[in-house]
Amino acid sequence: xxxxxxxxxxxxxxxxxxxxxxxxxxxxxxxxxxxxxxxxxxxxxxxxxxxxxxxxxxxxxxxxxxxxxxxxxxxxxxxxxxxxxxxxxxxxxxxxxxxxxxxxxxxxxxxxxxxxxxxxxxxxxxxxxxxxxxxxxxxxxxxxxxxxxxxxxxxxxxxxxxxxxxxxxxxx
Amino acid sequence: xxxxxxxxxxxxxxxxxxxxxxxxxxxxxxxxxxxxxxxxxxxxxxxxxxxxxxxxxxxxxxxxxxxxxxxxxxxxxxxxxxxxxxxxxxxxxxxxxxxxxxxxxxxxxxxxxxxxxxxxxxxxxxxxxxxxxxxxxxxxxxxxxxxxxxxxxxxxxxxxxxxxxxxxxxxxxxxxxxxxxxxxxxxxxxxxxxxxxxxxxxxxxxxxxxxxxxxxxxxxxxxxxxxxxxxxxxxxxxxxxxxxxxxxxxxxxxxxxxxxxxxxxxxxxxxxxxxxxxxxxx
Lengths: 172, 282
Hints:
The complex is a heterodimer. By secondary structure, chain A is an all-alpha fold. Chain A has one domain (2-171). Chain A contains seven helices and no strands. Chain A has helices at 2-22, 39-42, 50-68, 73-92, 106-109, 111-134, 140-164. In chain A, helix 1 runs parallel beside helix 3 (50-68). By secondary structure, chain B is an alpha+beta fold. Chain B has a domain at 105-261: Thrombin, subunit H, CATH 2.40.10. Helices cover 36% and strands 31% of the residues of chain B. A six-stranded antiparallel barrel of chain B has the order 3-4-7-6-5-14. A six-stranded antiparallel barrel of chain B has the order 8-9-10-13-12-11. In chain B, strands 1-2 form a two-stranded antiparallel sheet. Chain B is elongated and about 130 Å long. In chain B, 28% of the residues are buried. Chain A binds chain B through residues 50-51, 54-55, 57-58, 61-62, 70-73, 75-76, 78-80, 82-83, 86-87, 132, 135-136, and chain B through 12-14, 16-17, 19-21, 23-32, 34-35, 38.
């Protein structure tokens, strides 16, 4: 339990750091901007109570907002992400599996599941983020291309991260 | 009540979602100017429009003060012009350096009444004897000459406009400094003046500037108009020509009264000479 909390705190700090000081400056052709910090919300253990999940998502969003100078924008997108996460997990994962599969990571859930999971959540998050940021329809083409390309970039980075910290099941 | 609680706990994710989402959207719309503007767009166009109108109205009210200050500043600057100084060459020998004595002084004034459609037009300005205006002073504006003060009260003065049958100023052609007299034209046109008594060998050109000569109330070189027609009258011993006023007298707003500090001296001297002439002829 303590270990899980510590790991998540470290992960939070690390992801924030990477997002704010590294990925904030990366933008491919001004279209593709990765937001990998959502990995923190995605990787919270299955057993996280909903209230805690939403609160953490809210805090995560607000922290990013503080650095991006957009109060509320990332928080709103993160809340959407948390909600989609709850729905996705309730549909795809058996409740009994919670005990021996503590968190929805690549090494635990396998590539196929994790890919679908991260892709779905990222798409929702990014769609909400970019449309809320633009806030009108006149630049819909630009917004959509940003959304798609950024999502691909983010998912790619997430899979790379997942493979980097890949651990075989047996070692657990 | 219990059913409601069960319902809420079963779908707690959804309710939590609603609560947090609303909270973050409230934060978002409240603290981000662009989204706020878009969100309140319809209201904004209305209030913005109203604000703009009200501001325009306030600006209009303060225009008065702004113009006053500008006119005052103009008068001040004109006071500093070299052309308004009289070079005292006699003193030069005494003091060993160039000494400028101010000859012309300008008093900013506002036109508070004006007429252009009579044959004897007068302008009322808001400066009077308290401000140093005296009968006989010239009045100019930024575009040219306006007239001469004929009546003074404490706070106001009457100016005999250029558009007046009695008005006659000494002017000259800018190019060759040929002297003549400027009058109002015959046909009551507020834009046309008549330049008479010009020497026959002056060879005036169309479009040439007519400026004040410095012989009368005004400093030399103030714009009066431009020659527009060369031979309105034939067969006289002096040339006369039409010119277009540089000033639109129907739109006068701010003028400056010219105080020639040596006018009295000049008048006295000239009237003395006249008297001498009369005495001699008798």
